[in-house]
User: Fold this.
Amino acid sequence: MRIVYGSELSLRLKGELKEKLLGPEFKRKPKLAVVLAGDNPASLSYVKGKGRACEEVGMDFLLQHYPEDVSEEELLKAVSDLNADDGIDGIIVQLPLPKGLNEKKILDAIDPAKDVDGLHPVNTGKLFLGEKDGFVPCTAQGVVALLKEMGEEMCGKNAVIIGRSKLVGMPLTKLLLNENCTVTVCHSRTQELAKIASQADILVVAIGKPRFVTAEYIKEGACVVDVGVNRVDGKLCGDVDFENVKDKCKAITPVPKGVGPMTITMLLENTARAYLLRKEK
Ligand code: NAP
Assistant:
């Protein structure tokens, strides 16, 4: 059994990206802008992490922090100004937004060419139509990078994804199809979930239920990626009961230090790509 740390892979990828950003393709540092509304402690901490990661690789970072009672019009204006600013390559609106704000309307206002979270319908459409110049949600990309790091040949393998969210399960479905996996997507209404999961050569779990997946869900020799982030008694844990399943796996990611760091690294890569794609136009 091998534990595959996203923290280690992301350090390596950030190192490579830092080098690349110094190369001739980049006439200036790519710049990521984050729009944050309110003081949700988790959001503040995520945004801080994104700022730090930009600094590590030599990217510029702009935080636009609004109070909890910001109006929808103000946020739409902020997004529109960032869209128009040629010095900004990537834009993220940090979720969740304070109650009463129309999340979808604000996210859809982001220019798809700067939508480095990959949540705009144009980018979702591009992903599912197989067009290569869109942006893919960062966590789903991070999962595929971790599976590649596990050294698993994905072509023709049975992949089971538990969870069908727009952020993780749905985009991952298409990414694993692109790798020629046979993909089964499970959700809260799936019957005989353990039986289906236990057929998987590749199992990805993204449901938000602490230590939900136990040994009966695991095929001997499976590669398991745990996307879940849950807090139990003040400690972080995943959706997979790591201690219970690890000896059955060929490779498994831990929580923390698994998928989390990869999400941020993929955001940096998307921002660098956004710079290059916009430069080409
Ligand atoms: P979400 O939008 O709440 O979706 C959860 C999905 O899990 C839904 O499709 C739901 O099914 C399914 N589900 C819930 N309970 C289930 C059960 N008992 N059996 C089978 N399926 C079940 O969540 P999300 O945004 O994808 O996030 C999932 C987890 O990943 C959370 O812990 C989140 O914190 C974590 N996450 C981590 C990162 C990272 O960077 N590490 C990034 C994103 C998310 P239905 O569709 O039928 O409701």
Remarks:
- Residues 138-260 form a domain with the Rossmann fold fold (CATH 3.40.50.720).
- The mean pLDDT is 97.
- The longest strand covers residues 31-37.
- The two ends are 46 Å apart (CA to CA).
